[in-house]
Amino acid sequence: MTAATIVSATYAESYADSNIITVDQGWDYSDRAFFYFSPQGSPIIPFEFAKALEQPNSEELFLDPSFLKELGMIYWNDPKSNPENLPVGLTVDNGRLGNESFLGMNCSSCHVTEIKVGGKTALVDGGVSHFDFWSFMKTLNSALHNTYNDNEKFDRFAKRISEGSKLTKDSESIRANFRKTLRHVEDWSYRNHASLEPGPGRVDA
Fold first, then answer.
1. Are 73 and 85 in contact (CB under 8 A)?
2. Which of the ends of the chain has fewer CB neighbours closer than 10 A, N or C?
3. Is the pLDDT confidence value at 117 over 70?
4. pLDDT tens digits for range 149-161
5. What's the rounded Cα separation, in Å, for the pair 51 and 47?
């Protein structure tokens, strides 16, 4: 089967963005949205922290789509299922750890891929993605470290948090909670350290 056949209108459905199509793989729109954006029990950091966090060496936000695309993440425009405009595979986990929402990750982050043909982009579910999970976690760790150790960066972060409604607005409490989050990611990085980074498309290496 050629790539042109894969993305033909006969075998695909088009949603939201006219340049994005999805290959007919036996499930409908709601099934796909559930696969892309439903939590699967892998919370990473508090969601309010994720939204307020800056990139390691920039004042731009960590969740900026252009930044996450550089790490190989894919976007599928579906405001109903994904009101926070997260990339495929990042989720909002509610209720697993108390009342606080967390940024989570599910299987679709590594198992949806893109095929680009003739100005169209087809999403293939179950394919090996180009997402670099290891670089994502390494960059997240750096972003947390830099925010914690840079007073100006932390002040901007705390200001964004204080403007929200779900977490404490006290700066010292924000820093204490932030330190717990940093320690959690540090521990993960220590436990999963490898001398050779697997690269894009590999989480099980």
1. no
2. N
3. yes
4. 999 999 999 999 9
5. 6
- Give 66-87 pLDDT, tens digit per residue: 999 999 999 988 888 899 999 9
pLDDT band at residue 98 under the 50/70/90 scheme: low
CA 104 to chain centre: 7
Q: Which DSSP symbol is given to 86? A: P
Residue closest to 47 by CA, chosen among 108, 79, 88, 95: 95
Between CA 117 and CA 4 the distance in angstroms is: 7
Residue 99 token pair: 């009342």
Categorise residue 94: left if φ over 0, alpha if ψ from -120 to 50, beta otherwise: beta
For residue 124, give the H/E element and its range. Answer: strand 120-125
Residues 55-70 as b/e (b if ≥16 CB within 10 A, e otherwise) read bbeeeebbbeeeebee
CA distance 112 to 32: 11
Strand 90-93 to strand 102-105: parallel, antiparallel, or no bridges (unpaired)?
antiparallel
119 conformational bin, left if phi > 0, alpha if psi -120 to 50, beta if neither: left
Backbone angles phi, psi at 122, to 5 degrees: -100, 135
- Give me the chain's average pLDDT, please: 84
* Contact between residue 115 and residue 3 where contact means Cβ atoms under 8 Å apart: yes
Helix axes 171-191, 133-149, angle to 10 degrees: 140
Residues 6+ apart with CB under 8 A from 37: 78, 81, 82, 86, 88, 91, 106
pTM over 0.90: no
